[in-house]
Amino acid sequence: LDETTTLNNGVKMPYFGLGVWQTDNHTAQNSVTEAIKNGYRLIDTAKEYGNQAGVGKGIRESLKETGGNRKDLFITTKVFNGDAGYDSTLNAFYDTLHELQLTYIDLYLIHWPVDGRYIDTWHALEKLYKDGLIRAIGISNFDNERLQNLLDHATVTPAVNQMEYNPLNQEKEIHEMAKMTGIQLEAWSPLGGGEALNDPTINQLAEKYHKTAAQIILRWNYQQDVVTIPKSTHTNRIIENSQIADFELSEEDVQKIQAMDKKKHTIWYDEFDWHNAIKPETVQEWDDT
Ligand code: A2P
């Protein structure tokens, strides 16, 4: 849980954290509080999730309870499609800081590469990074072609590319390119939205190692040098998911998981044209008292 990877700018990032996608403010507040109390250091949210206020509240609450320090946490958030562009990204960033009630962000990502606008968005991230408001900047959901285009126009190389990555969708070409360009790969939906948990190969390995299916997948992420942020809103699963330091998958068993790749995205992925259209922001009721 404490292990970190060193990003291409020298910043250390935990290999393991909590995701809070599809979680309302109150639930996110609770999950974040439980996670940090149980040793999590990395929390991953996004403006689009509509729960940054709840995440911020969870951070403050848990620091108060544990006596911990903000500097020991690693907070990731993202700029969404509707804010793509230079000035709009700068404005979105300040809104995000305000919602989270933080003075800086550890890792700020372009959530989706909106075609025609992601270079301008990147230049805004570079400015915020150079101004010292973000410790590392990165991207999410960039294929290799868009990444190459970004690299051709960037003065700062992205530190991270966050992709859908799980045994059923291993994004091997993107992982290769990330390794070659010194970019850390990070997995969203590492459990395949729950689907990979039912796979027979994963369950055989779970039996063999006396671990749960989720722990097998998350350990495999770590052994592949992939940062992982499983989402759960249940305290027992939040704890279970973090218990992956006390065993190691053999090379042979890693290969069994490598062979599971079907290049299959989770169901919702194809529902929306993420690279072009601007989806309306999620707006949630939030009583910040
Ligand atoms: P829940 O939030 O009810 O615990 P992913 O991160 O791949 O998108 O997967 C998240 C899904 O997997 C959520 O539906 C979450 O449900 C479920 N999940 C998370 N951890 C576990 C676990 N240890 N065992 C079973 N299901 C899990």
UniProtKB/TrEMBL annotation:
Residue ranges occupied by any NADP-dependent oxidoreductase domain in the UniProt entry: 18-261
Cross-referenced Pfam families: Aldo_ket_red
Keyword Transmembrane helix: no
Domain of life assignment: Bacteria
Xref: SUPFAM superfamilies: NAD(P)-linked oxidoreductase
InterPro entries hit by this protein: AKR, Aldo/ket_reductase_CS, NAD(P)_OxRdtase_dom_sf, NADP_OxRdtase_dom
Record's keyword terms, sorted: NADP, Oxidoreductase
Membership in a protein family: Belongs to the aldo/keto reductase family.
Name of the featured protein: Aldo/keto reductase
